[in-house]
Write a structure and sequence with these properties.
Blueprint: H1 3-15, H2 18-25, H3 29-43, E1 48-51, E2 54-57, H4 59-86, E3 92-97, H5 99-104, H6 107-116, E4 121-125, E5 141-145, E6 157-172, E7 193-195, H7 201-212, E8 221-222, H8 226-234, E9 239-243, H9 244-249, E10 255-258, E11 266-275, H10 282-298
Parallel strand pairs: 3-4, 3-5, 7-8, 7-9
Antiparallel strand pairs: 1-2, 5-11, 6-9, 6-10, 6-11
């Protein structure tokens, strides 16, 4: 059967009428009417009736909608796969990452990779807060913070751990807790806390640590980005949590860092979403080999 017949019925149902669906599909109304007629003949009974405001599906038409939706998903994934296969020789690398990963984990790796492969064109989109805003098919690799889920990822992608890191607690200079030899999670409860945005992997990981210790932290100040947390803590607004990598590169922050809870601190995992090897361009393959080798050397 022609897939366009079912997809036309779906478009008409979702648009509420043939004329509206024609605009969505960039086809004429007679073309859509003819497709619906052919589909009705295949099924053997009417699929819709006209109403004053558009159309209304019959029980037979309604029964086809879930199948049509599944078919649309399959067609979209097929088109995406074809596009990616056409890009196999492309010297372009498209990466999406959260603010923390884009700022403190990827830049040095991307610079070194581009020195080795100067003809590769790199596109990096950082600072992602809501992954629903990302057009997944337009990008190759996705770098995620621990505790985040990436919805809408194609079935031929896999999400795997990429790197372990530590989250440290930072205090403004002269904070009274800095006089203690060992600071416990319970000690933080009496002071304002600077929180990252709700979708932050750092925040989710720290909140889980509090809850694991049966503590409900104060919802004091909520800001976006690791740089804003450092500035707020430095100004004396409260206690914050940042990745150890950020602290390494932000030596200008006038803050004190402690590993809480002692002695292991809070560990978290960064993840990478990548296509299966058969769908990886040569550029993606080279980049993955490069970062795996460089990360192995670093350890």
């Amino acid at each position: 059967m022609d897939t366009e017949l079912l997809l036309t019925l779906l478009a008409v149902a979702e648009s509420g009428g043939i004329s509206a669906a024609a605009r969505v599909l960039y086809r004429s109304q007679p073309t859509l009417t003819e497709r619906l007629h052919r589909l009705s003949q295949l099924v053997g009974e009417p699929l819709y009736i006209r109403t004053g405001r558009g159309i209304e599906l019959t029980p037979a038409g309604t029964a086809l909608i879930s199948t049509a939706q599944h078919m649309r998903d399959v067609v979209n994934e097929f088109n995406d796969l074809v596009l990616r296969r056409q890009r196999l020789q492309s010297g372009v690398l498209r990466i999406v990452a959260t603010n923390t990963v884009a700022s403190y984990f990827l830049p040095q790796r991307l610079v070194a990779f581009q020195r080795k492969y100067p003809d590769v064109e790199i596109h990096l989109r950082g600072g992602v807060i809501d992954w629903r805003d990302i057009p997944i098919p337009d990008w190759d690799l996705f770098f995620l913070e621990g505790g985040l889920d990436l919805e809408g990822l194609p079935s031929y992608y896999s999400v795997t751990p990429w790197m372990q890191d530590e989250i440290v607690t930072i205090f403004p200079a002269g904070h009274p807790l800095l006089d203690k030899a060992v600071i416990h999670m319970e000690d933080l409860m009496s002071y304002p806390i600077i929180w990252r945005e709700r979708m932050s992997g750092i925040r989710r990981t720290v909140e889980h640590e509090f809850y694991k210790n049966h503590l409900t932290p104060r919802q004091s100040i909520e800001i976006t980005g690791v740089e804003a947390v450092g500035a707020a803590v430095e100004a004396g607004l409260g206690i914050g949590f940042v990745t150890a990598a950020a602290l390494k590169y932000r030596k200008e922050w006038r803050v004190a860092a402690r590993r809480i809870p002692s002695p292991d601190g809070i560990q978290w995992t960064l993840y990478m979403a990548r296509p299966q090897p058969i769908y990886q361009s040569r550029t993606i393959q080279e980049f993955l080999r490069y970062i795996e080798a460089s990360d192995a050397d670093a350890t």
